[in-house]
Specification:
With 276 residues, the protein is an alpha+beta fold. 39% of the residues lie in helices and 11% in strands.
């Protein structure tokens, strides 16, 4: 019973914080902020800690084949099932679209070997999801290219055990993800020719402080083009739009991978955003 209480507390932490419930409050005015009924059911059940709808009995990972739990915890964290990669793609697409609407030129899936970064050999197979150039100076004061890595972590491991301190400290999965990315890309962390940004969230909906501030900075920079009296409300409107897009993309993709429904990518190509 103590383990069950700790899990409930950990899940509550993962579902709390700024923007954590944004997927439920985003207005479904387009494909990028609409969640299908089954996936919304999955997300609601996850928040209430109720058994999920019908799903396979065992994990599909060839080297795993673990019996699945009723709450989706295994598939939310299993790194051999292929579902972590599948759910990452809609998140990357959403962040790329936000950056483009904010005014950046975005390059996707760049090999580090093709980037002129000291210490990286031509045979290096690592790939970075997003590289953003030409953002407004108010959102990127140093003017350097932003090299962005998008990730979602779970405070519970695939076997159901909790990460250290997860029962007492909110955001442990985010902190671990940021540390893992720093270890994976030390050349980017130490580079003076670009800025490395980890855009992390948790499976419950919690955003990292970096994500919250980044979206706020982008919205404020975007609002500079509006008349002075409208800049504050314009910034709030852009922040609401982008936070909704990002939260829906992340939670919709998560729900799709928990019930074995392929995540739907963001198909809309209007990168200019709606008019003021």
């Amino acid at each position: 019973r103590l383990e069950s209480l700790n899990q409930a507390r950990i899940i509550q932490f993962s579902q709390s914080g700024p923007k954590a419930g944004r997927a439920f409050t985003a207005l479904p005015t387009g494909a990028e902020t609409t969640i299908r009924p089954l996936r919304m059911n999955v997300l609601a059940r996850r928040r209430l800690r109720l058994p999920l709808p019908l799903a396979p009995r065992r994990c599909n990972g060839p080297s795993c084949r673990t019996p699945l739990d009723a709450y989706g915890d295994h598939w939310a964290a299993c790194n051999v099932s292929g579902r972590l990669v599948r759910r990452a793609r809609p998140m990357e697409r959403a962040w790329g679209r936000v950056l483009e609407e904010a005014g950046a030129r975005v390059q996707r899936h760049q090999r580090l070997a093709d980037m002129d970064i000291p210490g990286i050999s031509a045979s290096d197979g690592r790939v970075i999801e997003l590289v953003a150039n030409d953002l407004p100076s108010s959102a990127n004061p140093h003017g350097l290219p932003l090299v962005c890595d998008v990730t979602m972590g779970s405070p519970l491991r695939a076997n159901g055990t909790a990460r250290p301190r997860a029962h007492a400290e909110p955001g442990v999965a985010i902190a671990n993800a940021e540390q893992d990315k720093a270890r994976r890309y030390p050349e980017l962390v130490d580079s003076t020719r670009c800025k490395f940004v980890v855009l992390a969230c948790e499976v419950g909906g919690r955003w990292s402080a970096t994500c919250c501030q980044f979206v706020r900075d982008l919205a404020e920079a975007k609002s500079r083009a509006a008349p002075r009296r409208l800049q504050r409300s314009t910034a709030r409107a852009w922040e609401d739009r982008w936070s909704g897009m990002l939260a829906v993309a992340a939670q919709d993709a998560l729900a799709a991978t928990l019930v074995d429904a392929a995540p739907q990518l963001l198909h809309a190509r209007d990168v200019s955003g709606p008019p003021l």
